[in-house]
Amino acid sequence: MPRLLIVKTGDAFPDVVEAHGDFETLFQKALAAAGFEAAVFDARIEPLPSLEEVDGLYITGSHAMVSDAEPWSEALKPWLREAMERNLAILGVCYGHQLMAAALGGVSDYHPAGRESGTHEITLTRAGREDVLLGQLPERFPAQLTHAQSVLEAPPGAVVLAHNAHDAYQALRYGPRQWSVQFHPEFTAEVMRAYLAHQVDKLRDQGQDPEALLAGVTATPEASSLLVRFTAAVASDSPS
Known about the structure:
It holds the Pfam family GATase. By secondary structure, the protein is an alpha/beta fold.
């Protein structure tokens, strides 16, 4: 069984936590359905763990902003660079996507077009179609998204695997076993609707139609499959 660690970087809204579980719980539920277990490390309050006992890392989303450079978040950057040097398998999600990019020489900050929320189509690049992880997905697939910040500049050497109308960097690969995605593979349609309900005013303020976004929420099985695909790849590379 691979030694898996979820790096918790924030909390979901209290009502979402009560009804569906917090960010790390959503990851654990998806993994448990496939027979995997993962420990949790709360990066905001716990000391950085040794990477010697870890085979694979997941970095969760957060309501924090990478550009705020909070001390706990900044402390993760050299730790993630060490993980890269060890060639540990890593999958960053949303905040984790932005943090990985910033840690490895890119730029993450507020998107000039504002917030992206709801179920939106993602398109694989040619590199994405050939990627060992994302290449098993359809060339175009729906995914759940909620973010105000984005990767604005990819790190040197990073490979762009997916994009959409809002974001040029919806998925990146940094090395042979290290990926990050802006969308939320752990979100269900119910969780996405709950998030949109919190964002009605903000979305209206930037000229979007919250009711239309709510009506457009659908299941995203292709995007959700990434968690188990990644974990299965880690398991195949790990000692028995």
